[in-house]
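Encode chain A's predicted structure.
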Amino acid sequence: MFDVLLELLDIWWTDLVSVSALGHRRAWLILVAVLATLAGAAAIVYLMYLR
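Encoded structure for chain A:
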């Protein structure tokens, strides 16, 4: 489960670095989207382990 999250994070980080060279505004939007997605995934995992 966590391996998948790390793989996705690695892909997102690569995208973020490549995009940041093009435009900082888009890079910030991607960063916010990634953080929101990670927060959602963490919440799902947390709720799964609570049950």
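The longest helix spans residues 24-50.
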